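Please fill in the sequence for the structure shown.

STRUCTURE ENCODING:
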């Protein structure tokens, strides 16, 4: 057995303090003092009543959402902020990532809903009173419908509109919040909305519009970044602003096949790193042969990321193919030999470690927050192992010098999973949507145990990196 790294994982530990019986091969992974245990949610998925958003309009088109679901009252979180904050407290959460809903705050262009702003102030105060640090996302997939009708992120007025909105949010809650995520997973709505065309704005195979949207998001982020820093420095407060990047592992389906390898690396660059690097360098470079060749400088963008938010879920295998998915010269396929979650996503903890190491290599001096990681598991049959194994991957990366400050599990409770509707179950708490009761799953107890002891214990004899079938 090798003991290495700053936390020195200990095998064969005896939990005298808890009186628990620990298997001889239990591996104990301690996290550094002050590490943040967090859960993540998004407004549209849990609050309910998001009537002025583009997604509300979209969901009400027949055939857009699985089983004909609509977000409706979702988890009724809007009316249950205290209850849900207390749930967090019971499972040892010390940080909570959630989003404020632009469509509720500015339901019509230039018109501010003071009660919505007050609602979020009350939410932040509630969290603070419970000793939970808020990390606030300004935009998590939904836009106000008025903004969508103007062209969403493609609209050349979007940076000014987003800056104005960000200022309003900061003026309301900035005295109680240090960390802001401007935009959640910017590349996901581009693939879903402009390549597949399955989510707003439903433009299939329209990369020209997709690139306009990417530029709009980058410009909007840069404006919000500068505005939040100006406001914070005028008030002598600390602030940190970043993105939540959705980064996936892309591996060649046939590892020895040179075209699959090239295709995987092209996709990795276009999806994972084009946007990411642009925020660092101020220059957006995106290249997919025959489809896209972008090289543009965006003024004010370079260096506008104080921390890296990472959402990690899975890996895709890439197969070169002419006429592949959405006209791409490649197809994304699930690895047939590996275990999948309820949505068919490969469970691949080793990929979490790989991505963290890549982040460190690209942006060595930036602190990292795991802004999302979790899985769809309706009967909680593998979530506990998923959690432990991903935390092992995280711990290993940290032991090798990757600076991660906290881990947000997606999600606190089951919620509205976008086009998949209410069927997928990502929660530590199970939602009964008829009674709105939140019922703790065994994974919630495990999370509480991990958070309260600031450590993970797992059976060292069980392989963890790749979950083979
Ligand atoms: C998104 C969440 C979503 C989760 C599970 C992330 O990509 O930020 O909104 O529910 O994945 O699909």
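FILLED IN BY: designer on duty
SEQUENCE:
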């Amino acid at each position: 057995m090798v003991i290495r790294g700053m936390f020195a994982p200990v095998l064969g530990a005896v939990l005298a303090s808890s009186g628990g019986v620990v298997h001889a091969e239990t591996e104990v992974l301690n996290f550094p003092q002050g590490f943040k245990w967090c859960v993540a949610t998004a407004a549209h998925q849990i609050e309910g009543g998001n009537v002025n958003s583009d997604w509300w309009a979209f969901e009400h088109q027949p055939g857009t959402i699985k089983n004909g679901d609509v977000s409706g009252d979702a988890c009724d979180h809007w009316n249950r902020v205290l209850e849900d904050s207390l749930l967090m407290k019971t499972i040892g959460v010390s940080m909570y990532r959630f989003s404020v809903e632009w469509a509720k705050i500015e339901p019509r262009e230039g018109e501010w809903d003071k009660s919505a702003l007050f609602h979020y102030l009350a939410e932040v105060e509630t969290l603070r009173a419970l000793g939970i640090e808020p990390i606030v996302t300004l935009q998590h997939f939904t836009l106000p419908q008025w903004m969508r009708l103007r062209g969403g992120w493609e609209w050349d007025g979007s940076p000014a509109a987003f800056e104005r909105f960000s200022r309003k949010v900061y003026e309301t809650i900035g005295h109680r919040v240090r960390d802001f995520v401007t935009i959640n997973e910017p590349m996901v709505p581009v693939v879903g909305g402009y390549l597949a065309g399955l989510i707003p704005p439903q433009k299939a195979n329209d990369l020209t519009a997709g690139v306009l949207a990417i530029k709009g998001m980058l410009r909007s982020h840069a404006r919000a970044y500068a505005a939040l820093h100006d406001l914070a420095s005028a008030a002598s407060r600390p602030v940190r602003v970043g993105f939540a990047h959705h980064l996936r592992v892309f591996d060649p389906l046939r590892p020895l096949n040179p075209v699959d390898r090239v295709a995987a690396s092209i996709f990795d660059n276009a999806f994972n790193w084009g946007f990411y690097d642009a925020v660092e360098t101020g220059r957006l470079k995106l290249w997919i042969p025959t489809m896209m060749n972008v090289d543009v400088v965006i003024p004010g963008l370079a260096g506008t990321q104080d921390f890296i938010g990472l959402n990690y879920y899975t890996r895709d295998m890439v197969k070169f193919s002419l006429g592949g998915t959405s006209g791409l010269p490649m197809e994304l396929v699930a690895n047939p030999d590996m275990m999948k979650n309820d949505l068919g996503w490969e469970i691949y903890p080793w990929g979490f470690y790989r991505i963290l190491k890549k982040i460190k290599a690209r942006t060595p001096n930036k602190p990292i927050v795991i802004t999302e990681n979790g899985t769809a598991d309706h009967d909680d049959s593998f979530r506990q192992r998923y959690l432990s194994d991903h935390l092992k991957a995280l711990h290993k990366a940290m032991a090798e010098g990757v600076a991660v400050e906290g881990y947000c599990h997606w999600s606190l409770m089951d919620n509205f999973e976008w086009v998949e509707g209410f069927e997928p179950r990502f929660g530590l708490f199970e939602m009964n949507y008829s009674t709105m009761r939140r019922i703790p799953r065994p994974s919630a107890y495990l999370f509480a145990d991990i958070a309260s002891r600031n450590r993970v214990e797992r059976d060292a004899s069980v392989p963890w990196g790749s979950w083979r079938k």
